Amino acid sequence: xxxxxxxxxxxxxxxxxxxxxxxxxxxxxxxxxxxxxxxxxxxxxxxxxxxxxxxxxxxxxxxxxxxxxxxxxxxxxxxxxxxxxxxxxxxxxxxxxxxxxxxxxxxxxxxxxxxxxxxxxxxxxxxxxxxxxxxxxxxxxxxxxxxxx
Length: 149
Description:
68% helix; mainly alpha; 5 helices; single chain; elongated
């Protein structure tokens, strides 16, 4: 009986074949994977700074900080998705995309929660801003995707 046409079929490979495929991937694709993961980490480091309501602490506007953080995150996630789609090698995906991306997302998730719950707000309803929700959702989605993949 043939498998349904809408499911992916995976062929069993030996570790030697996987490592040979990994070695065949050009160095600049591995560099792109590192750049994508560093962009995600930088976005999650910059993003919690935009949660603060006190605008006098910054030399630039909070909207500019949000825009830079969102651009870094979107760039990192899109480049990660493209590389994952382009290269089906399991070792490349795990060591160059999923583990660094999972680590960046976990750090971003914890940093966002710390910045939301670690501050004293005059009004408790001001605790969760739109940018805080976006940061937690983005990091959670990637972490869940990697966990269930």
